[in-house]
Amino acid sequence: MYEWNEMVQRMVDWLEEHLTENPVLLKMSEQLGYSPYYCSRQFNQYTGMTLRDYVWTRRISRAALELRDTDQRVLDIAVKYGFSSQEAFTRAFHKAFGMTPAAYRKTPRPIPLSIRQEVFSPYHYWIKERNRMSEVRVKPVEIKVEFIPAHKFIGIWDIGAADYMSFWNNGHSCDEVCGTLESMSNHVLPGQLAQTAGWFYRNGKKGYLYGIPVPLEYDGPVPEGMECRVIPESEYLVFHHPPFDYLKDNGAVMKAIEDTAWNYDPKAKGYAWDEETKQDYQRHFPEGYGYAVLRPVRKV
């Protein structure tokens, strides 16, 4: 069960590693041990995209980030990502984003970048491994205080969603939202993760949010369908678990953090919750940061 989720994820991983080369179907199928036809068919079934389309969208998105973040010549970027000429790259870029590479480099704006596909999740891994005995890898929850200055938050606040999954099942396109926010990653508030989720409160009801924190002075464009709100400065209690194996331990780590965060009495550290006019943050970067829930507090 779910063997093909894992196999298609291996295809995605292979393609991501070879985007600047010539990731031909035959070479990939030889590496994975399946026929080119079968690889192509299964990839399309599990991702909803052909291999050719996936490679094209990921190349043009990677190229866009290099236009934004480097001084490389447009021609060099075009050749690096497999385009036969600068003209071919310009046509492809305009088709994807409605503007030329030169115009985007001069005035970067939010664009819907293609994001890496994920078709093999911790749930699938748990199904695969549930009958095997394994050691407990969850570490004790760290509780610390962090000050976050006043800033702006660009994103979506959905009062009808309670968590990550219900948010994306409530009419928001994960690919479109995450891809657009990825194109704004150069504006992220220093010291914060790029794409951040969390919870907010309205008339006693709890909703879910997703977006990016940016400096208070940010006055750039706000993507269509998103809002930009000012978030006051605050101290936060941070409930944190260090980096972990996403596939094997994600569920257990998240449960440990959230059980602690939602049942903790802040008086133990001389604080009270201060969530009425602020919002909680959720940081999830298993390999680099780990997992954390941040709740705003004020001194008692």
Automatic annotation (TrEMBL):
Q: Which residues form the HTH araC/xylS-type domain?
A: 9-107
Give the matching InterPro entries. Answer: Homeodomain-like_sf, HTH_AraC, MarA-like, Reg_factor_effector_dom_sf, Tscrpt_reg_AraC-type_HTH
Keywords, A to Z, come to: DNA-binding, Transcription, Transcription regulation
Q: Name one Pfam family in it.
A: HTH_18
Look up the domain of life of the source.
Answer: Bacteria
Q: Does the keyword Transcription apply?
A: yes
Q: What SMART domains would the database entry show? A: HTH_ARAC
List all membrane-crossing ranges.
none
Q: Which PANTHER family match?
A: ARAC-FAMILY TRANSCRIPTIONAL REGULATOR, RIGHT ORIGIN-BINDING PROTEIN
Q: What is the protein's given name?
A: Transcriptional regulator, AraC family
